[in-house]
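Troubleshooting: if your tokenizer reports a length mismatch, compare your output against this known-good record of 162 residues.
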Amino acid sequence: MKAIVVHSEGRTPRLAWEEVPGPKPAAGQVLVEVHATAVNRADLLQARGLYPPPPGESPILGLEVAGAIRTIGVLGGAEGTLDMAQVLMKSLTLKGTRLRARSQQEKTELTRQFRDRIWPLLVAGKIRPVVDRVFPISAAAEAHRYVKANRNIGKVVLAVRP
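Known-good structure output:
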């Protein structure tokens, strides 16, 4: 698989779109085929070594992701697949979060609040995300500079798939 790899060279990290070993989801995790990601301040800090991932977590940048679930890790570490047709037919909802420092209880409560308060507004078209600019994934370094310079108002998206 490909990912943005950070090469530290002094205070200025160099980002490269490179081949890396593919991950295998553990119990309670999923493997996502990434279609897009976004650049945020935590990514800028992590690239500079100032916001390391928790022990045992992936060093790959990208706290936000949009894509398709490919594999689900279940108890015992086995792999499974998710039939997206069934998800759509049954109107199931998949949710994800990556809030590093929060407890499981806090994450559960935040997800519930998002589902109850925000999701209906998104579905109804009453609110929508503001996308400032879309960069191709190969221009991740340029996107990081753009965010670091405070040029964005809204999300800066990195498109992985055309």
